[in-house]
């Protein structure tokens, strides 16, 4: 009865990180239970179906060639999508006016956003990125890097906008230059995809793989504590008092949740205190038709704004309809003012849109990632996990964990890393190396 003696891995969180971890752990022969507090799986990668429109939670683009694609490929999860609709050209939103966004050599020459000297500086900076020793920039903030290399204020603004759209981060004083530039290069080398039918397709694909490998997935199951005995993981307690036996636990949620589940573990408290969330305000709008089909993409240059018609390339709306995401990088306290600002951007790009709204959702402050690679902590390599010092058998995963990737890429990569650490043959899920092997097939 090999299955009965396999170690029990409980995964807390049914988002991309938790489901990736569950799929790998189940494939490694462990008895896996996923606990998701919401009634549906997906977390921030969920897609809501409304009147034939697929609403991701804010604008979501999958980085090609990144950790997400690697994990999905290994697990055999198919994703289908299309690049953003920038072939008509992209706009820069500057001083309330739309101009050409300098994204390539031609638009750089023709755009009126930049004076000539600024054009030369942007071109020189972009052309020189490949030659940089990125590792040496891990502890330098992107802002410090930029200020040193680019003098023209308008050129700095354009570069900041390109980094914001690549990383989602607007705190460039803290963001590691290494991580920022790597992420920008990932986006420009292979590009990104808007997924047909939304990001839920990845969630469902991962859940299918995990289930097929034997994992049990419980929705509506909120974890409230990790029960340990003599320093060993014993169970996960649910809000209704039930206990799910566990030999190892993967916490695939926020650092503050990890710390609250194990309040006696100082490392988790320290990680939670050090994390700086990346936030955004999002206006997700479904329209019955698109008033200006050519106006599909814009980036704010003097303000941290984003506009894109995701349905212009991906299948996210019924025939003739349009699925639009408008966003502001970094949430502000005055959410009504932000909502008005996003509505104005929508009207500027798509005049009359307000009369064509079929579905609308405003998210004043959503956490995009629980942390970002901070220069002060040595960039991506300064991120914690997946193992938790002082808590054998406990692992973490999510977009704030591990040394690989940003955004969802970090969730996928750390989900895999956490599962590998929790199922390693000699791993001591009980905190006592070599005493007992928990590989069911040993
Ligand atoms: C507006 C927005 C835009 C984004 N755009 C992009 C993008 O373009 N590209 C990109 O790569 N990434 C993007 N991201 C980031 C990406 O969505 C996230 O990094 C990723 O979905 C996080 O997955 P996760 O599994 O780590 O966390 P989550 O999705 O947060 O999953 C954690 C899960 O844990 C559950 N949970 C919490 N507490 C408990 C508990 N006590 N018990 C049981 N379950 C619990 C939650 O309900 C949730 O389902 C964006 C995010 C947002 C919000």
UniProtKB/TrEMBL annotation:
Please state the span of the N-terminal signal peptide per the UniProt entry: 1-25
Q: Which Pfam families match?
A: Amino_oxidase
Q: Which residues form a coiled coil?
A: none
Report the GO molecular function annotations.
Answer: oxidoreductase activity
What InterPro entries does this protein map onto?
Answer: Amino_oxidase, FAD/NAD-bd_sf
The record's keywords, sorted A to Z, are:
Signal
Q: Which domain of life is it from?
A: Bacteria
- Tell me where in this chain the Amine oxidase domain is found: 16-421
Protein family: Belongs to the carotenoid/retinoid oxidoreductase family.
- This chain belongs to the protein called NAD(P)/FAD-dependent oxidoreductase
Please give the organism. Polyangium jinanense
The upper taxonomy is: Bacteria, Pseudomonadati, Myxococcota, Polyangia, Polyangiales
